[in-house]
User: What shape does this take?
Amino acid sequence: MELLQRFLKGEKPAIARVITKIENGTDPKLLEDIFPHTGNAYYIGITGPPGAGKSSLVNAMVPKLLENNKKVGIIAVDPTSPFSGGALLGDRIRMNDLALNENVFIRSMATRGSLGGLASKTKDVALVLDAAGFDYVLIETVGVGQVELDIAQVCDTTVVTLVPESGDAIQAMKAGILEVADILVVNKGDRTGADRLIMEMKFAFELRVHNSDWHYPILKTTAIENIGIDELVSTIKSHKEYLEKSGKLETERKNKLVIRVNELIEEKIKTHLHEYVIDQKQLKKMIDKAYERKITPHYIIDEIAKKIF
Amino acid sequence: MEKKIRILIGKPGLDGHDRGAKVIAAALRDAGFEVIYTGLHQLSESIVEAAIQEDVDIVGLSILSGAHMTIFPKILKLLKQKNAEHIIVIGGGIIPEEDIKKLIQMGVKRIFTPGAPTNEIVDYINSIIH
Amino acid sequence: MSKDNWKEKFSKLKERDINFSNLSKIKINPLYTPDDNKDLDYDKDLNYPGEYPYTRGVQSTMYRGRLWTMRQFSGFGTPKDTNNRYKYLLKHGQTGLSVAFDFPTLYGKDSDDPFAQGEVGKCGVAIDTLRDMEILFDGIPLEKISTSMTINPPAAMLLAMYIVVGEKQGVPKEVLTGTIQNDMLKEYQAQKTWIYPPEPSMRIITDILEYCTENVPKWNTISISGYHIREAGSTALQELAFTLANGYTYVDYGIKAGLPVDTFAPRLSFFFNSHLDFFVEIAKYRAARRIWAKLMKDKYHAQNPKSYLVRFHTQTAGCSLTAQQPENNIIRTAFQGLAAVLGGTQSLHTNSMDETYALPTEKAVKIALRTQQLIAYETGAANTIDPLGGSYYVEALTDKLEKLTFEYFDKIETLGGVVPAIEKGFFQREISRSAYEYQKALEKKEKYHVGVNIFEEKENVEIDLLKIPEEVELDQKKSLKKVKEERNNSKVKKTLIKLREAAENGENLMPRILDCVREYATLGEMCGTLKEVFGIYKEPIIF
Assistant: This one.
């Protein structure tokens, strides 16, 4: 198969086309073909609230990751508009310095938002870049919800990026996003409030540090001026080393595979339910009835369950 | 998952008039397309590389600086060199009729001039992709 | 008949089915009466022309003394081509020059830079070194003419070249009159021609302020420009508010650099757009004068009344021109020019009918100039000062715009001021949204644009267009090469090193730039040197 051969040779147009096919789900066989070639890349997740400078951080980090002739594949995920289904993907603007580097591949993805959509497709696209021979796969997402926690489940190292102005957003996220952080970055570290934020985060991390061999570092960067980037990259590398030496890389990857399989099972069942089992019109009618307090939501579930069990 | 039309909107060259490009980008998003916006001051090489990696169906270039007779041919040439001739090139900007004819002959699929309504552009894209 | 009576009658009749609000989303009443001007105090809010708060005009004589300067923005091809166009315009009664530079020049790049490919001489004239500037003003006596230069990041270099051309003509810099745009804030917000990040850009601007205050005292050092904000899609209100906010930000920086406000504020000038909505434009100019006077007096405690003045240039709205039925653009431009005159502009550029296709032909630009001359010599609009002063509608609009402008100021201040608001993308987002809303309003036919969404015709547009031959780029590259061969390259290097040191140690850049210019250093060399010290600006992602 010509596309696959060109893909395995690392031709960029072929990589791009394979991603499209995987993303659109038009060629299920393709994933089977490439899967044996995966497992070699190191996955790094970069997440954080909008405006945290994630793309700038990636733009600054990547040249360091490219040292020693390494190759870096980047997936930049932006939300799909819930109203139109369209998306404006602008992260490349920030990554212009990398655009013409032959060892770099950048792909923008929209969340698209059908069932299990974003996380699942992004994970598959990450596999594509892995199979294409990139040493590092960077996944950049806007972190405000479940989806990003999900992405962390495929990444070996997850970097959470905050800025001093994040303010309330941090409060909201503390519970979720920080749980998945292996490294925390306070970007735009030259702005007022950066040091205070670092103090707060140290406090938030205390318990985790206590219970782990990994020290959950908190770093200060100013990505657009290239400040703190060396340290960030070397910290990522030492996290990698830590995972490898402690044997955690193996166990965590296996763990992640378990999670992934379970997720796919759920997805499959959900899709099957909605496409083949549940009569959507009838469901809508029942929901209306439930709204009028004539039946309970549990009754609806029982009705659906009758069709399966 | 359904296939989405993907379009790259690029601002090659030095002109900073991005009003049109941004309005079009927003309108295309609202029409349900996935729009990759490259930002200002792009080299033709970067635009072509982005179009390939993003596997877009269409590249739309906005040029208001008068450099259209240099930039469009260059983009077409680069796409050809990289075996990406399947990517359709359209454009918009301050471009005289006479030049439009020449550009179409060279392989630019369509040029929109100032005042073109966004829904005309949306309809056009739907008509050539589907 | 009482007002209630009229209201009752009016409410029974059917209105035309359109959206009666202007482009600033201000609702327009069917009628304005003295009720709408109840709080208006003539002495306090209007006063006489040339008197605080200058609502009615900045001079006591206005056009009864002297007409506005008719200043057509122009430049294309090589310096020689543009020099010929200038001589043509001066011959036909133009009274000031306004230089349009090509994109590489605007961006501080030489004609042989890879980025310049295809752009040399296209959108304006190409200037690489002092040699080009000498040719551009050949045979034009600088002591007799005022020259406006639309140039921003490399403003210091072009001003330096102009000063040196003056020296060579025997005209001392103290008598030179003219303007450099030198308004970087609106570049980050709207026009997007930038090189360095905001802070070093502001430092260059304050260096220019300081240098000119002492050495080129009649020069307008910053032309604080709303024009490009409007062209990028803002409303009239946003144009007004953002321009004045930029204005007071320059004042803040000047003061921070240790300059007393009255030494430099009188040399600040403004540049506004004149768009389709006739009365709003007029009210905008009147409001601008009043707001600025109040700011300068109350906030900055300026003593010199010249610091209070909004002296401004106006250009008709390029973005309002249509490719369809291009002859209509002549009429559109005439209305817009008239609004600028009724609003008390100090100088005016009227657009040419063919500018949605290319740079204007000689014929088109002559019609545009004649349009101004018609307003000046036939309509009688210049015969009395502020003829719309006291109009219930115009006064109410002026008040409304003023009020809403101060609300914008508050919003900007809560973001930390103009520069932090730029970094947060505030202006960029406001402008893009307005542009998109306007486009949607056109498509939903809530707003009309003749020939575009109403009275459309199937047509084959046939008009003559100016063509810039491809040889221009080659010629320009050739002459640049020649200059580089003929100049003393080791001296050039030395002056560039001095420039670099000045950039690093904070000394005023202007004297160093003048030294570079005298040695025929190129624009790209000078800007490149500063780029090494100051870094380059990266665009935030904003829709």
